[in-house]
Amino acid sequence: MDFSNILLLLIGAALLFLMMRRGGCCGGHSAGGHDLHRTDDNSNYAVDPVCGMRVSKKNAITRQINGKTYYFCSEECANSFRG
Asked: How far apart are CA 59 and CA 75, in angstroms?
Protein backbone atom coordinates (compact mmCIF):
# COMPACT_ATOMS: atom_id res chain seq x y z
CA MET A 1 0.00 0.00 0.00
CA ASP A 2 1.61 3.23 -1.10
CA PHE A 3 1.34 6.67 0.49
CA SER A 4 -1.46 7.96 -1.80
CA ASN A 5 -3.71 4.99 -0.89
CA ILE A 6 -3.11 5.55 2.81
CA LEU A 7 -3.88 9.25 2.43
CA LEU A 8 -7.15 8.55 0.59
CA LEU A 9 -8.13 6.00 3.24
CA LEU A 10 -7.49 8.52 6.03
CA ILE A 11 -9.47 11.26 4.26
CA GLY A 12 -12.37 8.87 3.68
CA ALA A 13 -12.36 7.74 7.31
CA ALA A 14 -12.31 11.35 8.53
CA LEU A 15 -15.25 12.29 6.29
CA LEU A 16 -17.24 9.26 7.44
CA PHE A 17 -16.53 10.11 11.07
CA LEU A 18 -17.68 13.71 10.60
CA MET A 19 -20.82 12.69 8.73
CA MET A 20 -21.85 10.18 11.38
CA ARG A 21 -21.09 12.57 14.22
CA ARG A 22 -23.16 15.40 12.72
CA GLY A 23 -26.45 13.55 12.21
CA GLY A 24 -26.58 9.84 12.59
CA CYS A 25 -28.51 8.34 9.73
CA CYS A 26 -29.40 11.83 8.56
CA GLY A 27 -25.93 13.07 7.80
CA GLY A 28 -26.33 12.72 4.06
CA HIS A 29 -29.64 14.44 3.31
CA SER A 30 -31.66 17.44 4.28
CA ALA A 31 -35.14 17.34 5.73
CA GLY A 32 -37.37 20.21 6.75
CA GLY A 33 -38.17 18.62 10.10
CA HIS A 34 -34.71 19.10 11.57
CA ASP A 35 -34.59 21.80 14.18
CA LEU A 36 -31.76 21.04 16.57
CA HIS A 37 -31.11 24.43 18.12
CA ARG A 38 -34.61 25.60 19.04
CA THR A 39 -35.40 25.75 22.74
CA ASP A 40 -39.05 26.80 22.76
CA ASP A 41 -42.08 24.68 23.71
CA ASN A 42 -41.12 20.99 23.67
CA SER A 43 -44.69 19.90 22.86
CA ASN A 44 -44.05 21.08 19.29
CA TYR A 45 -41.17 18.62 18.92
CA ALA A 46 -40.64 14.88 18.94
CA VAL A 47 -37.65 12.55 18.78
CA ASP A 48 -37.23 10.37 15.69
CA PRO A 49 -37.30 6.78 17.07
CA VAL A 50 -34.79 5.59 14.45
CA CYS A 51 -31.94 8.10 14.60
CA GLY A 52 -32.75 10.14 17.72
CA MET A 53 -33.00 13.44 15.83
CA ARG A 54 -35.22 16.10 17.40
CA VAL A 55 -37.87 17.04 14.81
CA SER A 56 -40.57 19.67 14.52
CA LYS A 57 -43.94 17.90 14.63
CA LYS A 58 -45.39 20.21 11.98
CA ASN A 59 -42.60 19.43 9.47
CA ALA A 60 -41.92 15.79 10.35
CA ILE A 61 -42.79 12.71 8.33
CA THR A 62 -45.47 10.85 10.34
CA ARG A 63 -46.67 7.28 10.54
CA GLN A 64 -49.72 5.99 12.45
CA ILE A 65 -48.98 2.55 13.87
CA ASN A 66 -51.45 0.80 16.19
CA GLY A 67 -53.11 4.12 17.03
CA LYS A 68 -49.84 5.87 17.92
CA THR A 69 -48.26 8.68 15.89
CA TYR A 70 -44.53 8.45 15.24
CA TYR A 71 -42.51 11.40 13.94
CA PHE A 72 -39.49 11.02 11.63
CA CYS A 73 -36.86 13.35 10.23
CA SER A 74 -36.94 11.73 6.78
CA GLU A 75 -38.62 9.13 4.60
CA GLU A 76 -35.47 7.03 5.03
CA CYS A 77 -35.97 6.83 8.80
CA ALA A 78 -39.74 6.35 8.47
CA ASN A 79 -39.28 3.48 6.03
CA SER A 80 -36.70 1.74 8.21
CA PHE A 81 -38.83 1.92 11.39
CA ARG A 82 -40.24 -1.35 12.67
CA GLY A 83 -42.69 -0.29 15.38
From this structure: 12
State how far the Cα of 27 lies from the Cα of 14, in Å rounded to an integer: 14
For the chain, the domain total comes to 1
Radius of gyration of the chain (CA): 17
Using a cut of 0.70, tell me whether the model's pTM lies above it.
Answer: no
Q: Which residues contact 24 (CB under 8 A, 6 or more apart)?
A: 51, 52, 53
pLDDT single digits (tens) 21-79: 655 555 444 444 444 444 556 789 999 999 999 999 999 999 999 999 999 999 999 99
Question: Which domain range does residue 7 map to?
Answer: 3-80
